[in-house]
Amino acid sequence: MENITILLTGLSRVFASLARLSYALPLRDRASFRLQRVASTTTATMTTVVPTSEEDPVLYVVRFTAEMSWAEAGPEVAEQQVASLCLEAQECMIAGRWLDLASLMITSADLVFSKALDTDLECIFTIICNLVKKPESLDELFEMAKLLSTKIAQQPNDKPALRLKILINLYNLLENPYSRFLVYMNALKLAMDGKVTEHIIPSFKMIDTLLKEWDLRVQDQRDIFLAVSNILKEHKSFSSPKETLKFLTKYLATFSGEDSQVMEEAKEEAAHTIIEFVKAPDVFQLDLLEMPAIAQLENDTKYALVYQLLKIFQTQRLDAYLDFYATNSALLKSYGLVHEECIAKMRLMSIVDLASNESGQIPYSLIKDTLKIEDDEVEPWVVKAITTKLVDCKMDQMNQVIRVSHCTERVFGPRQWQALREKLATWSGNIANVITTIQANKVTEEGTQAMQGLAIH
Which of 98, 105, 123, 127 is the most exposed place for a label (fewest CB within 10 A)? Predict the structure, then answer.
């Protein structure tokens, strides 16, 4: 099973020269050196631990973290607590109580997270995370993955990049798809809360592949699409409007044929998707109107006007937008929409509408009137439509028309599917005629050659 590779700057290597010479360290770091020896032969993805010390790696970690946790309690108390924890860990190992052992170790490790060196923490959590290889029961494995990932993500402000690194290593150790999904969701939450999203955003390119691997229920799909879109929404410097809209529409697409109570959950994000579409300067085609999650807003008391705005941007021209703005300017401003940017986008949308509705050519005068611009602005706006690949056309300056050969559809609904079906039928018929003509010519040619052969004899 292909491991997820989602870490970029600062997280691409799991270990970098863990083994250090003990004589080069101060006395306080000798214990740290011994701990590093335990995990120094771990592979680059933290999947294998080969003990190199006399004590079992698990027991060594229990002892190391317990000593650090109880160091301030005094020797007598510390010694007693450390011995008790080590004994409990041994009992768990003998009895095969791996979930209890993981709980014991992660609790101690979490207590020393802010105190220990990062290299020590990597080693500690390598050994703890390797416990997921022990359970034979899938239920126990899932509970262990849930316990570890939740605990690791619980303090997002304490070394968040390191915590994220540990979570990704835990992900790679797991083979159960749903356990992997659970760890990934905790990684998303940690990245968001700890403000280290730049390390996990590159993984969004792999979401479609991961979804096939995870085989999720509808609710889980909603959770991950919403989590990803929220991250992209908050960190626009790392993504484009197209990426954000892609995950928002994936989220909304999961709402189909649901009861009204479930559909209610999608209303806020449906309205947000509409606003993001209107704002996006380079997104002109997005099939939103037919989506049930969007359509429910048409008669909604809170979002009906937002739906009306979408309808204008997807099916109407500039004059409809200007009429809407005249009575709803405060609403647009409340959503952060800039009037001039909306006009610019609607002008391009209007050119597309003219190109799709006219008979292959559009007079300059019609473009001028529709876009409400001056004569000398017609050609620059047509050029903009061409450069954004909304229309494919030529400008006939002599006759003051543009000749359209192709244009982008603003929406792709039943009418567009019917038109495509008719074009394919025509194309199929033309191909059939060509094949028939070729076959007829072949027969004629063969007959001619045969007659020539008889004439020679």
Answer: 98
| For residues 438-446, average pLDDT | 74
- Euclidean distance between the first and final Cα of the chain, in Å? 73
Q: Residue 239: count other Cβ atoms within 10 Å of its Cβ.
A: 20
Q: What is the pLDDT of residues 171-189, one digit of tens each?
A: 999 999 999 999 999 999 9
Widest pairwise Cα distance in the chain? 121
Q: Where are the alpha helices (DSSP H) in 291-371?
A: 292-295, 304-315, 318-334, 339-357, 364-371
Per-domain boundaries in the chain: 1-176, 344-436
Is-contact 6 202, C-beta < 8 A? yes
- Provide the 3-class DSSP secondary structure of residue 363: strand
3-state secondary structure of 442: helix
CA distance 383 to 35: 66
Token reading at 237: 């410097």
- Fold (topology level) of 344-436: Arc Repressor Mutant, subunit A (1.10.10)
- Which string of DSSP letters, residue by residue, matches 100-141? HHHHHHHHHHHHTTTTS-HHHHHHHHHHHHGGGGS--SHHHH
Q: Work out whether the CA dihedral 260, 264, 265, 266 comes out positive or negative.
A: positive
What pLDDT does residue 18 have? 29
**pLDDT tens across 285-328, in order?**
889 998 999 999 999 999 999 999 999 999 999 999 999 999 99
Say if CB 405 and CB 356 are below 8 A apart: no
402 in Cβ contact with 359 (< 8 Å):
no
Cβ atoms 395, 379 nearer than 8 A? yes
Q: What is the pLDDT of residues 355-391, one digit of tens each?
A: 987 578 899 999 999 999 999 999 999 999 999 999 9
The two three-digit tokens of residue 12, written as one number: 């691409």
- Tell me if 187 sits within 8 A of 167, measured CB to CB: yes
393's torsion region: left (phi>0), alpha (psi -120 to 50) or beta?
beta
Nearest CA to 120 among 58, 43, 49, 32? 32
Residue 394 has pLDDT above 80, yes or no: yes
| Rounded-to-integer distance, Cα 144 and Cα 79, Å | 29
Q: At what angle do helices 241-253 and 218-234 cross, to 10 degrees?
A: 160
Q: Which of 290, 247, 239 is nearest to 272 (CA)?
A: 247
